[in-house]
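sorry to bug you again but im stuck and you know this stuff better than me. below you get a single protein, a line of residues and a line of whole numbers that encode the local backbone shape. mainly i need to know what kind of three dimensional shape the backbone takes. anything you notice is useful, everything is just below:

***
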Amino acid sequence: RNWMHVRDQYPHCSKPYQRIGYTAFGQGGEIAVQICATVTLIGGCCAYILIAAQSLARFLYLETGTDVVEYRSCVAIMAVVFLLVLIFGMPFNFNDFTRLDKN
């Protein structure tokens, strides 16, 4: 119900949860909602990096038969990979940076 109210009253609102927090509790509510959303997203990203690193470590162990790359090294590798994707986008977006003809 609150969501529909925000959607109807503010059709171009880019942060509806923060708007609900602001409407309910003022600026303090907006800040609290923003902090909660940020902590949730950071936690999800960290969990995703750890799961991907564990999968990479298992894959390398099964392919080589030894612990050539340790788990913590895989965490660093996955963090760098995801950081590069965050900065530059997905590989199909690399075209935008390397396009020679600027029509």
Q: What stands out?
A: Helices lie at 2-9, 16-25, 27-64, 71-88, 95-98. Residues 85 and 93 are 10 Å apart (CA to CA). The chain has a mean pLDDT of 82. The first helix runs from residue 2 to 9.
